[in-house]
Amino acid sequence: MSAKLQQKEINNYYKMNVLKFGGTSVGSAERMKEVGKLILDGQQKIVVLSAMSGTTNTLVEISDYLYKQNIDGAIDVINSLEKKYLVVIKELFSTETYLEKGKALIKQHFDFLRSFASKTKIFTLFDEKIVLAEGELISTALVNDYLCETGIKSVLLPALDYMKTDKNNEPDMPFIEEHLGRILHDTKDAEIYITQGYICRNHYNEIDNLQRGGSDYTATIIGAAIHANEIQIWTDIDGMHNNDPRFVENTKPVTNLHFEEAAELAYFGAKILHPTCVLPAKQANIPVRLLNTMQPEAKGTLISTECRENTIEAVAAKDGITAIKIKSGRMLLAYGFMRKVFEIFERYQTAIDMITTSEVGVSVSIDNTKHLDEILNELKMFGTVTVDPDMVIICVVGDMNFENVGFQAKVINALKDIPIRMVSYGGSNYNISFLVKAEDKKKALNALSKHLF
Ligand code: ADP
Ligand code: ASP
Ligand code: MG
């Protein structure tokens, strides 16, 4: 039997659920204890945890001070974060032994953070990634110790031992399957596995992360790697709402979404899901359920291959978009024009989100402006280039097969008072997207809710 086949068997053996709890869901000792209640149903499972809410932002703040060599500023923030954790452990643990263990754990992690605060050392991007990993390392150690204190056979799965990205920054699935499979095999008797969301090692084996909000991605990657029954994303809201609750009142949860619909919503700004986390679940065809820790009985949202036909499900908005228009009189005649344009973006590793074309030009939108100047310089060879910064993509998602007539008119009608820079439809059966000015975002989201739901 080949090594690979044996590995597949190991993986298939673990038909568990993967449950991910976000920052708010582990945001206090009380919430951690609630998580303990939610996960104990006698079924073996993998539990992915985020850092306690606010921690990753604070670690970013500490890193900013360290980049600027503001050692006193960094130390102040580190010390006040440590104080918060000392309160948490007092409330979390009930025995002297675990309280002492908790104190030692906090001291160790915060001494480590303080070790970066040195006037003689330059703080690098690599250091920042190491600092950012601390949030998840602490939260998982605390919850694991809490479960052990209450007599549960809980085992920590160290994400840095199995979660890896490849040279394209994509999950290295063969590596993950093999290493996670092996750790699970070696700790078969565990009742609960606790692991860190967000953090990973990159192609060079350095500590890295899956970008902000990446714990969702950790959960779906693990789900795909172990062929889980179901992936559950537990958060602070009862599922994917039909519009962004931060900008629109009276939004409602959507009960069912197709993988494609959820992927569009996540990518185009629905913060409840990390932008690319639907993909591993979709590829492995593992249903994803979005659930509310504060309201566990609520139905939430089920993401699977099922969807409601002929229905507009939800709206999302993606900020920080720049539109670029290239007008070229020669475009119609010049085949290969598009390729040349796209090659420029590829060379500068800049992804294009939206694209619209006409006979005289092409408009694209990007969210990464790191190489904007270089890109513009090269594009100018093809014609007149105009740039519109501070734009937002508004994405309307649902079953939008072109034969279902009428929904485009409905959507356009809802936006009749808002200037629209670009429209994109037909790329998939599941979305229609608009580019509008950032200042019109709230108005557009509200108008769509009013007319569509
Ligand atoms: P967690 O810390 O659990 O990962 P997040 O803050 O990342 O939670 O995601 C949950 C938040 O996403 C909600 O509190 C809500 O404000 C926001 N959100 C944005 N768009 C949506 C949407 N369409 N449906 C539900 N929540 C959304
Ligand atoms: N803690 C990380 C963040 O705040 C990852 C996550 O919560 O998903 O971005
Ligand atoms: Mg999140």
Describe this structure in words.
41% of the residues lie in helices and 22% in strands. It folds into two domains: 3-236, Carbamate kinase; 312-452, VC0802-like (2-Layer Sandwich). The longest helix is centred in the first third of the chain and has 25 residues, at 125-149. The strands form three sheets. An eight-stranded mixed sheet has the order 3-4-2-1-7-9-10-8, sandwiched between helices. It has a six-stranded antiparallel sheet with strand order 12-13-11-14-16-15. Helix 14 (407-414) packs across helix 15 (441-452). A hairpin with a 3-residue loop joins strand 12 and strand 13. The mean pLDDT is 94. The protein has helices at residues 3-13, 29-39, 55-67, 71-92, 96-114, 125-149, 159-162, 173-186, 215-226, 259-267, 278-284, 337-347, 372-379, 407-414, 441-452, and strands at residues 17-21, 45-49, 154-157, 192-196, 199-201, 207-209, 230-235, 256-258, 288-292, 301-304, 312-327, 352-357, 361-366, 384-398, 420-425, 431-437. The chain is built from 15 helices and 16 strands. It starts with a helix and ends with a helix. It is globular.
